[in-house]
Every structure is written in structure tokens, then in C-alpha cells.
Amino acid sequence: DMSPPAYSKTAGKTLSMEFLNLYHMNCWTIMPATRLKNCAMVELLTGKRQRPEWFISHWWGEPIADFLCCVEEHAYLRAAATSTAYWICAYANRQHSLSEELVKDPRETSFFRATQLAKGVLLVLNCESEHHGPAMPF
What we know:
The chain is of the alpha/beta class. It has helices at 22-34, 41-45, 64-77, 89-92, 110-117; strands at residues 54-57, 86-87, 120-125, 136-137. Strands 2-1-3-4 form a 4-stranded mixed sheet, sandwiched between helices. Strand 1, helix 3 (64-77) and strand 2 (86-87) form a beta-alpha-beta unit. The two termini are 31 Å apart.
């Protein structure tokens, strides 16, 4: 983690799945991969449009491994097909063009559009929340 210690409690450590989070992924994977095309990460992974079935609200600082466990549990509880599309801002938004999301009317944002298209919201609470346990789907 190349972040200054003031910004990251994992500064100076070699990244590992124990604590790898979306801040790390954005810096090391998403931003470099999407820079030339100024696209969203999902645009590099698939060429077809995907309607989100679930909008995920979460904290970028949670370990990705915990996040994935939560999404897997949600999919299991909801009997979701493997093709179920989850909207995750880090992968769905164009990280190089986030200034386009700074508008006066929140209904003009990709976040609002995604919530309107989705059939529900998955709220992921991490272990540092009031829940005081591992990430849980709601």
C-alpha cells in the first residue's frame, strides 16, 4: 500500500486479501485499466448492457473478501441466478469522470438511476459498524 500513513492504516504493507479493499483496487487496478478508454471497469469485462437487479451500498474500506462473502450470502438467501447483476459503484462508474456525478439534482446521478432500475438495495455493514461482527447482508 503506497498511501501515506495518515490516509491508510495499511500504508507500507504488501497488499493481501486479508485487507485488500476498493481503495486499493481503485488505485492499483481500476484506474490504470480504465485510463485510456475513460470507461467503467464493467465496460472492460463485458460488452453487453446489464440492468442491475441489486444496488449495493457499502464502504470502500471493507476487505473485498468480506464484501464478496456478503454478496454470496445475499445471492444464496435470494436464490439469485449466477447471471444476477449487482450494481457496485467502483466498477459501474467511470472513475476518471466522477465530476459528472457532481450535480445539483441527485436524480441525475448514476446512483439514482441504478436504484430506480434495481429491484432492491443490498446494504453491506462492515465489522466496524454498529453490528459488531462480520459484514452482513440486509
